[in-house]
């Protein structure tokens, strides 16, 4: 097969502290065995999250220096507006803002550009000569965009309830809610319904590993439609998470996005994306969906977003930035017709809680790194290397006989823990997979996160929902950070633990069992 050359090299290097098993053991006790609280400086390989953990490129660092920290209308604001239009809408003038900013074009030339003219049905209205962009909201990170969206929809709905014989929509449906997304929707009173295509943990034939992908992140359209038929008028939004982080970072196909959009139109319900890993998703479409092998990543991204009424995005993933988030929606679409006046309410809330609308809680330099990052992340050479590293990690685990969810998704490799513990008599409520992460951290300084009965709160679910919870441990791979050395060390460590899996302890919750998002802050004990 054709060789794939490397896509980048390291520029800045950080040395890792060497700590002993005994030191890590003591610190684990100090932090009540909560891996989120374990000091990162003592971790050798940190797979806790791919969010905000990317190493930036030289171009991003260059852009950072060009950041403008003004209180009103910093120029990163215009750059980000322009970039969003470039990346997510058809007909953008690719790289304009980016080249302009890096080349040090005078502000006068920049502001006179006609690129940001408002146009119909856009995610990014407003331009240099206008007071504001009424449908584009910068926030500090993804969950703030979620809070802004769900709380404001709720508020607008409760102020203008439907006619007497109609019910107030109280449900959000999705192919999979990320933990903060689900928690934000639930916290303002929405009921969540998840329709992931069945078969997430079904085995996948090894010989097809590198050639096919099942798009296991898809929404189960038939099940969603049945639900909508049985609950007319009750669904406020359809949210498609791409890639599907709830379903092990699995991609969603263009066909599925299109089908979800058709369903949403037919039922007159706005379709939003949780677009955190949109570029990785586009790569899977390019690589594995027949009609798209000849389309470029930017073209695929633009088609994907042509089906959405709006989206939330954390720039900490496929923005390749360390911080940032955005909420935007089409200015003249279903969403604004259905929730009248929502734009102004969102703006009010954004300014109250996060910051004025041209920075929304982000520093000017972070805005600039996201601008550069969004262009870098949509390059095919970057994505080939990125997805390639995750897949090669997965392949090495398989070659060592370690059960993983396959094929691997975009940003992480997941161990299949029911298979891992096969024959060891572990029950979901034993939280043995948490025990595995504690052993891995103590013995090898490797941090991974349980995404199973503990994280998804098996003990607090109805028997029906319990059945839907997979038993996984996630190794999220930070972008541009690890080399084969890290991956090989990790595979060898997992192998050693696998060989003595009978000795891995179960874990109990000692404090904070009933908190929302408890995995971040509860206490535990092996
Ligand atoms: N949506 C998805 C699909 C996510 O994966 C995340 C974060 C968010 C929303 C929230 O974004 O962190 O910027 O507020 N996921 C990270 C993870 C934290 O580790 O998977 P945020």
TrEMBL record:
GO molecular function, one term: lyase activity
Record's keyword annotation contains Transcription: no
Cofactor(s) the record lists: pyridoxal 5'-phosphate
Organism expressing this protein natively: Xylaria multiplex
Record-annotated Aromatic amino acid beta-eliminating lyase/threonine aldolase domain positions: 46-490
GO BP field: alkaloid metabolic process; amino acid metabolic process
Domain of life the protein comes from: Eukaryota
Keywords of the record: Pyridoxal phosphate, Transferase
Similarity remark: Belongs to the beta-eliminating lyase family.
Protein name as it appears in the record: Aromatic amino acid beta-eliminating lyase/threonine aldolase domain-containing protein
């Amino acid at each position: 097969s054709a060789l794939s050359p490397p896509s980048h090299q390291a520029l800045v290097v950080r040395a890792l502290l060497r700590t002993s098993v005994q030191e890590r053991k003591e610190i684990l006790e100090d932090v009540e065995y909560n891996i989120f609280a374990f000091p990162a400086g003592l971790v050798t390989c940190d797979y806790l999250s791919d969010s905000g953990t990317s190493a930036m490129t030289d171009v991003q660092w260059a852009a950072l220096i060009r950041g403008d920290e003004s209180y009103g209308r910093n120029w990163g604001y215009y750059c980000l507006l322009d970039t969003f239009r470039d990346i997510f809408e058809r007909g953008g003038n690719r790289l304009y803002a980016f080249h302009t900013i890096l080349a040090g074009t005078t502000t006068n030339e920049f502001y006179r550009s006609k690129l940001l003219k408002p146009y119909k049905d856009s995610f990014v209205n407003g331009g240099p000569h206008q007071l504001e962009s009424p449908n584009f909201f910068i926030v500090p990170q993804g969950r703030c965009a979620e809070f802004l969206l769900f709380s404001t929809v709720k508020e607008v709905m409760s102020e203008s309830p439907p006619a007497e014989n109609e019910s107030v929509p109280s449900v959000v449906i999705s192919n999979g809610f990320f933990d903060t997304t689900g928690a934000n929707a639930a916290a303002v009173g929405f009921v969540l319904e998840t329709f992931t295509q069945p078969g997430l943990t079904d085995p996948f034939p090894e010989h097809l590993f590198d050639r096919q992908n099942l798009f296991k992140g898809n929404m189960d359209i038939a099940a969603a439609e049945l639900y909508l038929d049985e609950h007319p008028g009750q669904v406020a939004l359809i949210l498609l998470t791409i890639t599907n982080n709830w379903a092990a970072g699995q991609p969603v196909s263009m066909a599925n996005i299109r089908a979800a959009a058709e369903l949403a139109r037919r039922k007159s319900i706005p379709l939003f994306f949780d677009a955190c890993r949109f570029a990785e998703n586009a790569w899977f479409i390019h690589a594995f969906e027949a009609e798209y092998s000849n389309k470029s990543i930017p073209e695929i991204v633009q088609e994907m977003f042509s089906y959405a009424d709006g989206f939330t995005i954390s720039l900490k993933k496929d923005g390749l930035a360390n911080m940032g988030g955005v909420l935007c929606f089409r200015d003249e679409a279903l969403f604004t017709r259905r929730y009248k006046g929502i734009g102004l309410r969102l703006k009010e809330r954004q300014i109250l809680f996060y910051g004025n609308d041209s920075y929304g809680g982000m520093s000017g330099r972070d805005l600039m790194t996201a601008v550069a990052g969004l262009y870098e992340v949509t390059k095919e050479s970057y994505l080939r290397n990125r997805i390639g590293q995750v897949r090669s990690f997965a392949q090495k685990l398989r070659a060592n006989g370690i059960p993983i969810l396959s094929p691997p998704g975009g940003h992480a490799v997941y161990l299949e823990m029911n298979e891992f513990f096969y024959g060891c008599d572990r029950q979901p409520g034993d939280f043995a997979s948490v025990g595995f992460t504690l052993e891995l951290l103590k013995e090898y300084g490797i941090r991974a996160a349980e995404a199973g009965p503990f994280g998804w709160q098996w003990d607090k679910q109805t028997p029906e929902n319990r059945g839907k919870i997979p038993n996984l441990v996630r190794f999220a791979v930070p972008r541009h950070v690890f080399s084969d050395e890290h991956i090989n060390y990790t595979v060898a460590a997992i192998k050693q633990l696998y060989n003595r899996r009978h000795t891995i302890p179960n874990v109990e919750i000692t404090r904070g069992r009933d908190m929302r998002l408890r995995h971040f802050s509860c206490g535990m004990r092996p």
